[in-house]
Please model this.
Amino acid sequence: MKTRNFLFLTAGILILALGALSLKSDDRNFEISKQLNIYASLFREANLFYVDEVDPGDLVTTSVNAMLKSLDPYTVFYPEANMEDVKLMTTGEYAGIGAVISKKGDHVIIREPYKGFPADKAGLLPGDIILSIDGNSIKGKSTDDVSEMLKGQPGKEITVRVQREGEEKSIDKKAIREKIQLPSVPYYGMAQNHTGYIYLNSFTDKSAAEVRKAALELKNQGATSLILDLRGNTGGLLEQAVEICNFFLPKDKKVVDTRGKVKQWDKEYKTSRNPILPEIPLVVLIDRGSASASEIVAGTLQDYDRAVLIGERSFGKGLVQTIRDLPYNTKMKVTTAKYYIPSGRCIQALDYSHRNPDGSVGKVPDSLITEYTTEAGRKVYDGGGITPDIKIETEELSRITQELILRDLCFDFVNSYALKNPQTAEIKDFKITDDIYNQFKNWLKEKKFTYETESQRLLTNLEKTAKDEKYYEQVKSRLEQLKKDFAHSIDRDMDLFREQIASFLAEQFMQRYYYAEGVMAYKVLHDKEVEKAVGILANKDEFARLLK
Model:
């Protein structure tokens, strides 16, 4: 009897519990239905009664974007018109003329034609101002608008009218659209001391294949050590990160696991085959722009003590996105999980689930950061990116260097120089000579380049405050003397920060004469992180010590 009563009691408790869960579920479903009803009613009323005509598509897209933005920056809606963006993101492929464009003042310009692609073959040059495309003026259009006009069906010819520096009349350039496949590995080559170098700038569906090809070719060229450069790589496809890790790690090693709300989607990713370079000494370069899949590769190789990491602390994106299909050929990229690398750490830096009252997002507090260990017992930490084994902080830019970059003056000078000088020294021999640097200084003077130092800005604010508070007449003479003391000379500042300015100027020269490949080839010869990596790889004892 007691047993039967106990069973009845247990069954009753279960029924009550299930009922409570059902009520919770019903309450949530009711709330969702209620809010959707409110939204539909609001949209209908706005569409019917707003004083001006509204575009339903624009209205919905704006509201959807605002809604998703409140979640995190990575959950994004793609309307039907933007399907090319999804394709480019996942495959690195689109149909167009193969050029980077950018806004410059009121104009859209050719920033960088890709070597060997239609824009390059048509003779479009960096700095060319785009006036029209197939007779359609682009005045007042955004870079996104112009980009869409340049893209289209492969094999179709388009006419791009441009205004070029030094030319009185506009120029028509005809280009035939092609399928453009942007490489994930835009450059690889040999550095010093038999060290191979691979620059990986994205994780598309072909990234692993490109890294594999580059690594094996470098090995055949005599590379006995390797540098994998992930600086500025914002990530992409997780599966590609797993496959790249497999090039250096044994079979059946855990690379990453993902955990989200939908438990059946939780997954553990392991290496699935034998590595192609199981023993090669490896350095991975990272910086604050290395994120997501880049952090999986760098963090996993660090957790297994397989590579020495050099550079800056990485971005700290420990979230996984999945692309979901929506009606009418639209899509949504939605954050579905967090990922955890082999040591057990999640390196997500920002906590989007707990926003501040003003809507801003705070970093994971130090009190919640947890210590983990690598396979060899080295200490590593979660909550804010991957910390490199050797930190090299980015040099702080002088005020004059910042102004030259922000105003695009290095870019403009090199374009002007190149129109008069069609050739320059080979990459290995190139340097910013006194003659080139003096030409740059004189060109800046012709352009009447001026700028305000931080000290001058503070003095200006102090003067304004003194006037507002009626102290100005008392301190006027001292302020005027301070202005004289802090007055700067462009010649002096150009000479003082020559090394820094010349570095940026040299990159623009390489871009203009040797395209993106030239920039990377030059960096391999002159980059301090690459130099440090080559040195570490050449010192076997130091390399081994860093991994213990």
The first strand starts at residue 76 and ends at 78. Residues 92 and 280 are 29 Å apart (CA to CA).
